[in-house]
Specification:
Elements (H helix, E strand, L loop, with lengths): L7 H8 L18 H13 L9 E6 L3 E7 L1 H4 L2 H28 L10 E12 L3 E11 L6 E10 L4 E3 L8 H24 L20 E5 L8 E6 L12 E6 L2 H5 L15
Parallel strand pairs: 2-3
Antiparallel strand pairs: 1-2, 3-4, 4-5, 5-6, 7-8, 8-9
Helix pairs in contact: 1-4, 2-4
């Protein structure tokens, strides 16, 4: 089984869920345990004031955890998106506080290591188009193991509808998109793996010799012309395409006719084939 990232699934559960999300319609976050709630409340009091339309950076260190969260001004300028990210900030921090508190309560008394849980999320702009804002987040975490871990999340803000979407929302389905890109993606990934390993990919390796599927990857939509989506990046985190020591993989693909055919008709105007 491929390793999962501590707390990253929590963030991805909303930032990478399928279907559009309107921040105004989301349910309140679950109430954290008393100790975690106290830590989160203390952290909130230490946060800098939120300035409308300005980049947001929060960092808090307590006796049990270190928390970082940031997003750019381009995201802050859209109230719905800013509210969504603020909720993610609060939810992920409360979860971190809860998990760190549980670790301290349950740790072996003989374990005298100075361990602090950590979670860092930094959102940045992939591309800012007339009708869309594409963001990606670098996520890092540590939960007391031999090493930390990291991953990536992504989302799209539909400026015309004021809604938050995922890149896959714009396609006819996973199967349609995968059919359009599988051959190109797997060939490009194998080329990168061969370069890092110094030998051909062992196709008999059921863990790191196979090509991961779309459900194991993070899809980012980008642009070279600043008018439409004409390129994409597929991200494979640690343990997805290779062992931890190999790091993560990013494969860049141009939007071509096959990909355009997989786009849902209502979003066709947001895409174009990349011209070189």
């Amino acid at each position: 089984m491929r390793a999962k990232l501590f707390l990253i699934p929590l963030l991805l559960s909303s930032a990478a869920c399928q279907g559009s999300v309107d921040a105004r319609e989301q349910a309140p976050a679950a109430t954290p345990a008393p100790a975690a709630a106290a830590a989160a409340a203390a952290t909130s009091r230490a946060d800098p004031p939120v300035a409308a339309g300005e980049a947001r950076t929060v960092r808090q260190e307590t006796g049990s955890y270190v928390f970082d969260y940031s997003y750019p001004a381009q995201a802050a300028r859209h109230p719905v998106l800013a509210a969504y990210l603020e909720k993610e900030l609060a939810t992920s921090r409360a979860a971190l506080a809860r998990e760190a508190d549980q670790f301290l309560r349950n740790r072996d008394p003989q374990d005298t290591r100075a361990v602090k849980y950590s979670l860092g999320t930094g959102w940045s702009v992939v591309t800012d188009l007339p009708g869309w804002l594409s963001l990606s987040a670098q996520i890092s975490s540590y939960s007391g193991g031999a090493h930390g871990n990291h991953g990536m999340a992504t989302l799209l803000y539909d400026k015309s509808d004021g809604e938050i979407r995922q890149p896959l929302d714009l396609f006819k389905g996973r199967a349609a998109l995968w059919q359009a890109i599988e051959t190109r993606f797997c060939a490009a990934l194998d080329k990168q793996r061969e370069e890092r390993r110094g030998e051909p990919v062992d196709k008999g390796d059921d863990l790191f010799g196979v090509c991961p599927g779309l459900d194991e990857l993070v899809l980012l939509l980008g642009s070279s012309n600043r008018q439409s989506f004409d390129r994409m990046t597929l991200y494979a985190g640690p343990y997805v395409a290779g062992p931890y020591a190999e790091g993560d993989y990013e494969v860049d693909l141009d939007i071509d006719a096959a990909v355009l055919a997989a786009v849902r008709p209502e979003y066709a105007e947001a895409f174009s084939a990349r011209r070189r």
